[in-house]
Amino acid sequence: MAETKKPIIQMKGIVKRFYIGAPNELEILHGIDVSVWEGEFVAIVGASGSGKSTLMNIIGALDRATEGSYMLDDVVIEKAKDIELSQIRNQKIGFVFQNFNLIPRTNALKNVELPMMYAGISQRERTRRAKELLKMVGMEERMYHQPNELSGGQKQRVAIARAMANDPAIILADEPTGALDSRTGRMVMDLFHKLNKEQGKTIVLITHSNELAKETGRILTMKDGILYGDGEVTVV
Amino acid sequence: MNLMENIRLAWEGLRANKMRALLTMLGIIIGIASVIGILTVGNGLSDTVTETMGSLGASNIMVSLQEREDEYLANTMMGGEIEEENLITEEMIEALQERFPYQISGVSLSESVGAGQAKSGRDYANVTISGVNTDYLDVNSIDLIRGRDFQDRDMDGNRNVAVVSDKLVNNMFDGNIEEALGQEVVVHIGDEIYAFNIIGVYEYEASAMGYSTASEKNIQTALYIPVTTAKKLADAPEGYRNFTISASSADNSAVFATQASDFLNRYYSNNNDYRVMAISMETMLDSMDSIMSTINIALSVIAGISLLVGGIGVMNIMLVSVTERTREIGTRKALGATNGNIRIQFVVESMIVCLIGGVIGIILGTLLGYVGSSLMGAVAFPSVSSIALAVGFSLAIGIFFGYYPANKAAMLDPIEALRYE
Ligand SMILES: Nc1ncnc2c1ncn2[C@@H]1O[C@H](COP(=O)(O)OP(=O)(O)O)[C@@H](O)[C@H]1O
Ligand SMILES: [Mg+2]
Asked: What was the ipTM of the complex prediction?
């Protein structure tokens, strides 16, 4: 689908090894080839420990691949310096974590402002945009609340608003409903659909739930460090 | 990345852990408070000393007899009786003046009679009777308000005349100086009663060194009479154990002090017990100054050690803070914080801790310095430069001891940090 659009993510032969002690190396990803196009909503499923998060970290420029080439929105990631990776994470990526990772003792508004602060946006503009985003996720009434005053679902909505702060090219969500009950999980999923449909955001979602995965446009399956495309492996 | 945001974050962090923040700051607080306190008291003290000595006349040279085996001037100055044959005679002093007419502008001699009380009806004033020569008031910078100084005829005639303080006039003549002049003042010392005619009134200046708690009414001031009269009243031996030379110029007074003592010691070359010692005020001021700065340095070293300990405390707590906030650091990196952003955040936090500690320390130190200097009779406040120094020092400690933990935070691997439990 959407083959006419340009690929935002282009990975070829991505290998990831961890070195646990000098002689012991552990290969987690065995050569991943994948492309994700602008406006796609992709689900990655797979057993726990299969390497989904490891791949996601590489996609999100938090980690580097041991081998292979990776182009993210026209930037060759393996050639980028650390400081450039920071900038890429700030400008092109929006992370949503399973455990929310809101900054403690910092209210919802300030949390949403944070990526804009690192982007050097003026205080006035970032407050304006943060309020707008919190409104979009239905949290405008809670914007002065600290994370410990919010429920899990509310925290995740703030986190999604924060991920959207710098209008990233892609949203990466690693089991965003994993810590939520099904009803609040539903609300979070609805938010992703809304972002995908209304704003055309590219979204990569890791999930354990086949039902949630089926709602997306494309399902990729991770099995023992190998990523299978649509239809190649249908059941986890 | 803006500074205000960092300051806000640091402040929130400190507020969340007030007790810990305070304990962390304690070393800095104590260090800065002692530095400020010491500087303040030190300043007050050296001001006092300089002022007191300066008011005695910077060009003065004190000449005194010293026991030959006595190492210290003080022992002789305060010591007991000296037999009449050992005392410095008026002839020796006159010879000295003749030998050095250009270097000497005056010689002040004195003889103490004792402490007592001037009484008139219900009025009284506490006094010490001091016999002085004609140069005395000049040499010792005592200013006459009214009346006249002693003259040779007062000395030669052993006259019963007195120069009294304005305080005495306040207590006994309702402050009316005109009325006091020419009046008789009656002084009781033990069973003895003496009467003197007031010929002059001088302005009393509280000696900053001799701090007194006496009220205005009970304050003890000197009542000056001719030294010849005093010798007779006190039945004192001829000669003097000490006297003060006023040198024409302060510049070479230290050199002249040596010449004067060399000259006088020729009279003592055959004296096995005593010799003459002369020391210029310049030399005394210098040695006082060097004692002061030695004390200051010693105390500053102690304060410095306390600041070092405080800084290590700050470093320790910053390391704990970095560990506690590992996940936060990972999150910030995922959101686009550069290593530099993280480093600045923690350095600012450390600087804020030290700055707050420093400000508390400055306040405490000011109080300490105020109380300390008041106790020594010269109220002093820390100078602007010492406050600026303390603030700068606190910030420097914050940077120095905060850098290592901040750098550790900056260098964290974002994935490891996010996975941290
Ligand atoms: N830093 C690391 N060092 C060693 N092994 C790791 C490291 N990170 C992940 N792994 C291993 O890689 C495998 C895949 O982990 P992960 O990508 O988190 O799986 P998933 O997200 O699919 O559950 C796991 O076996 C995990 O233990
Ligand atoms: Mg995972």
From this structure: 0.95
